[in-house]
Design brief:
Layout (H helix, E strand, L loop, with lengths): L1 E3 L8 E7 L20 H13 L2 E7 L1 H10 L4 E6 L12 E2 L2 E2 L6 E10 L5 E2 L4 E2 L6 E4 L4 H7 L4 E4 L2 H10 L4 E5 H10 L5 E17 L1 H6 L1 H24 L4
Parallel strand pairs: 2-3, 2-4, 10-11, 10-12
Antiparallel strand pairs: 1-3, 4-13, 5-6, 7-12, 7-13, 8-9
């Protein structure tokens, strides 16, 4: 658990939750303890809190439990999540009319496929080929699983990036669908040479800081200030903070 105390009088003390699964360089380490240093997303969020003058307590939780706590108002915010209508039961996204507002995103991710270099698998932007009787792995709770299922692609899930890459190299899955930045970082950090990326992205989407409906109802102006300031800090600081986590 990490507590950020901002100078001066505090307008709010908020509790924000994030996943217990690493997404380097955005979120560092696995498990329910915050890493030191914690990752670029937390650095950006801390900058937002400092500029707006509130205090944040962070907790890391499995995603399903995290969303339930957001729904109950036991945490005030959670990051980072792509938009889908099912998630509206748990909390609030920044919206523009009836749709989510990508200009107020936390970050943006591309999902790509990773395969063994000897594999015939390919994705041309519309359809897969060379999969045969194999399955595509993905990280549990990651939204790419929904997109794969819609195309009728057989899938299998594992909790962490490490588990899925190990399954790929052992031949237990044929392909791994993962966020490009995190997948590339894992291969680079672990000097894995037998795996390659299919360059055509499967999908690209914005990811958001969700806020609890209770917070938005209690102080809608604060909610809008948080999303707006996050967009500014993201553009100005995210890349700089990420460089701090490169070996």
């Amino acid at each position: 658990m990490l507590l950020l105390v901002c100078p001066g009088a505090l307008a709010e003390k908020l509790k924000f939750a994030c996943s217990d699964v690493e997404s380097a360089t955005y979120l560092i380490g696995n498990g329910e303890q915050m890493a030191t240093p914690p990752g670029a997303m937390v650095d950006v969020m801390n900058q937002v809190a400092q500029e707006l003058g509130f205090e944040i307590e962070y907790v890391r939780l499995p995603v399903n439990r995290l969303l339930k706590k957001l729904q109950m108002g036991e945490v005030d915010g959670a990051f980072s999540f792509s938009f889908n209508e099912d998630r509206l039961q748990y909390g609030q996204f920044p919206m523009k009319g009836e749709k989510d507002d990508p200009s107020l995103r936390f970050l943006e991710h591309s999902y790509v496929f990773y395969k063994l270099k000897s594999s015939p698998f390919n994705w041309d932007g519309t359809a897969v080929s060379g999969l045969g009787t194999g399955v595509v792995g993905f990280n549990t709770t990651f939204s790419v699983g929904v997109g794969l299922a819609k195309l009728g692609i057989p899938v299998e899930q594992a909790k962490t990036t490490e588990q899925n890459f190990k399954k790929l190299m052992m031949g237990r899955i044929a392909v791994f669908a993962m966020q490009e930045h995190t997948g590339d970082m894992y291969l680079w950090e672990n000097q894995i040479t037998g795996v390659e990326k299919v360059e055509t992205p499967f999908e690209r989407k914005p990811y958001y800081l969700m806020l609890s409906k209770q917070l938005v109802q209690r102080d809608p102006a604060l909610a809008q200030r948080i999303w707006a300031r996050l967009a500014k800090v993201r553009d100005g600081k995210m890349a700089k903070f990420q460089r701090n986590y490169l070996p």
